[in-house]
Each structure stands twice: as C-alpha cells, then as structure tokens.
What we know:
This protein is α+β, with helices and mostly antiparallel strands. The protein folds into 4 domains: 2-63, no CATH class; 73-109 and 208-240, Carboxypeptidase-like, regulatory domain (Immunoglobulin-like), CATH 2.60.40.1120; 130-203, no CATH class; 256-459, Collagenase (Catalytic Domain), CATH 3.40.390.10. It is 17% helix and 27% strand. The protein has a 5-stranded antiparallel β-sheet with strand order 7-6-17-18-26, with no helix packed on it. A hairpin with a 3-residue loop joins strand 6 (91-94) and strand 7 (98-101). The protein is elongated and about 100 Å long. It starts with a strand and ends with a strand.
Amino acid sequence: MIIRDSHMPGDLSVSDKGVSEILGHSNYKFKKKNGLYVVEHKKLNPFLKKAAKVVLPIVTTALLTTAALKAEQISGNVDDVHTDEPIPELVVGAEGLGESTTNDNGHYNIPDPNSVRMPNIIITKPLFDAGIFNVLGQEIYGFNKTDGRFHWNGRTNSGIPASSGIYYLWNGGKAKSFFHENGESNIITLSPPDLTQRIDNKGGHRTASIRNFTILGNEVYHDLSRMINIGDSTLYHPFMIPIEEREEEDWVYRNTLEGFKRLFGLATPRPSDLPLPIWIYEDNIPEPNDSVDYIDILSSVIEDFNRNGNWYDEEFNILRGDFPEHDSANYADFPQEEIERIGEGVVFNFLNSPYRGGNAYTHLFRGYEDDTNYLFIVDINRNLDRAPPITLRGVSSRELFRVIGGNDNSPHNSSYISANEAVNVGGIHPQEEKIIRLCWDINRRCPTKYDWPDIHWYQPTER
C-alpha cells in the first residue's frame, strides 16, 4: 500500500519509528521510497490485513496534520531599473516563508513551507460549517461544527461511498489533508479556524498576512527591504537600483540613490504625458543680444535634460501674439480658452518681475488627483543678461528640474542646478545627470504616482 500526499511540500512530519509503533506488529515494515511512504507486509493474515486498513487512514491523518491552510506564496521577476535586464543569483526572502535565489531569468518563488496546499483548486462557498472536499474542490460531505473531532463515514452527502484517494477537511480557515480508503471511515481532529483566512464574496479561498520582504543586492545593487501583504498567490516584480558611488571630490552625495532621496520629493509627471511640449508666445520672447539668446539657451538646456530621459519636446510650439493679459499673479484668471488650446506642457512667460520676486518661479498649474501635474507656467526674468553671475542657463535649468519633480536641497556652495539660482553653471552636474536618469527609469514604470514604490525601501549603501 502506498500512501502519499502530492500536494504537500517537503517530507511528512513524523518519524518512521513513530509509525512502526502505531502499527505495533513485527509483520509490518514502514519505509520511505522515492519520497513515498510504503507499508510492506512480511506475513499477512486476514486479521492483520483488516487492522492495517483501519489504522492506516488514522495514521495518515496524523502524518498530514500541519498548520493552518495558509496558501501564502509570493513569486515574480527581478530586473535592473536602468536596463530592464533580469538579475540572477539574488537572495530573495519573505519572513516566515523562506528564501529563494533568482534564476537566469530573474525569477524567484517562495511558497509557505508549512502549508497544506490544494493547488489549482477553487473551493466553492460551502453549505456547511466544515466539510470534506475532494481534489477538485467539491464539497462531498458536511459538518455543522468548525472544530474538534470529525467522524466521516466515508460516504458523500448522497450516501455514495467515496473512492480511495486524498481528501481535505476544511473549516473555512484551517485544513487537514488525509488519505481515505474506499469503504472505510476516518476520524479527523481540527482546531478552530484562523480568522485571518476567509471565504470571499466570490466563493474563493484567500489568505493574507503582512511579512517583511527582502532582496540582498550582492554589493552590486542596493538592498531592498519592505513590508508586503502576501496572499495565496502574490505576484511582485521589483526592480533593483545599482550602487553608483561618487566619482569626484565635488560630488555631493555618496551615491545616486542618496542624491535621489534628497532631490526628488515632488510628483514627477506621468510617463504618458512625456515628453512635455514647450509653449512660448512669439511677442513675449526677449530680443537676443550679444550676451544671451533666450531660445537658443532654452533649447540647449532641454537637450541637457533629454540626455537622461525623454523629458521635453525639443521642438518648441511658438504661439502668435503676446502672453495673455491677466490680473492675478498666480494666473488664477488665465484665459480658459488658452488652457484648452495648450492642454499640457510647459508655458514660458518672460517678464520683469516673476511671481514672488526672484528670477524665476514655476507654477504647478493643472494636475491629476494623484498630485502629478501636466500643465506648468514658468516665469523667467527677461533681464537676466544684465544681472551676472545669475545666468539664464542656471535659472532655466533649475526651473525645468522643478517641473520634473526636483527640489532645491543641494548645498548652496555646490555647482548643482538644484543648489540655487545664483550658481553660474555650464550645464547639469554629472551626478545630477545620474539622479535624473534614475528618476526617469523609475517613473517610466509607473503609470501614476500611486504606482511609485516607496524609495525608502531601498537602502543607500556603499561597496
């Protein structure tokens, strides 16, 4: 007689000695062959044969008794945030469930090692408090209680003898797997259901628990650590961020991730709205002179940004006439027909006194419910060529950095565009370029701000 539970991971949790003691007769040998438990009969008489048929289902029930039916499993693929290439040989762990190492395709799979699983079975909403289910998920017999000793006579609710095979006793939260032999009865003991498990309104079985999920970066990538709600079949496809350390003494941040956490706290435009169109009113453009040409410099600044993502449309939209008249400094009375005509993008307004003083100001003019914006108005001082060391390149770079969600947190004595508007820079700093590229590669994966990961899941580390 071969007894097996093909749905249970790993070995059955009992020693051969314990089973031999239960059988209690020298005519029986209990062995494990090829992962199966086999009872061999040395000498068989009718009495012992009958005893074996009665005892073995009870023994098997004990063998297959495990913890609650927590069909918790998490799997997915891990790739590089920049290249989208799968990352092999990363150790992925889920607290309480175990670990997995990513394969050549970046795939990992962590099942619950303590679960009795009914794979590919959808249990319909039961008619009773607890029931006997076959491997198809069909309830064949019911009980009007949820815990204690269950005596099953081996028949269905219709009185038909159940065939030999694997069955499950399930009370809506916990389960036991056992072997039933045709014509025999079974006694199963089950504790009360776990309230963390439930039957949902569609009748399917679901489990879930909050667990700590980690990926070790192998000193090439930053480690990932987060809490995640793991259910009966959770898919999670995280990306990993390479460790890019500072390369020169004037680089402010230890690595790109640290800089990203400092400089990006605002909402980045949705990838579906990128590249953002640029809108300029023809009669609002300052006349070029020997020191500055506003259109040429803006074009050069946008090229700088687009080396690290497709942020802005490099072909400007030149609108006829001058910037529309308005009385409100924050454009609250900006003509509605102009808003409808422009739709989305960045509208430049060159004026003598930008909003709230200073040399520039970015207005987050229109946005979505997730706080991402799709229409901006950027005030720029039209007299920057007369106010060195402040330059149009430095000021416009900083404002376009704000448009994509950047802020001014860099030290003021640095040569970063995110430092302050008085910095006379020749372009975006190399470390800022890496930070902008990281922002682009994260943002392109996230349709809305709600889809963004918490960047604090990633731990800044040095090699």
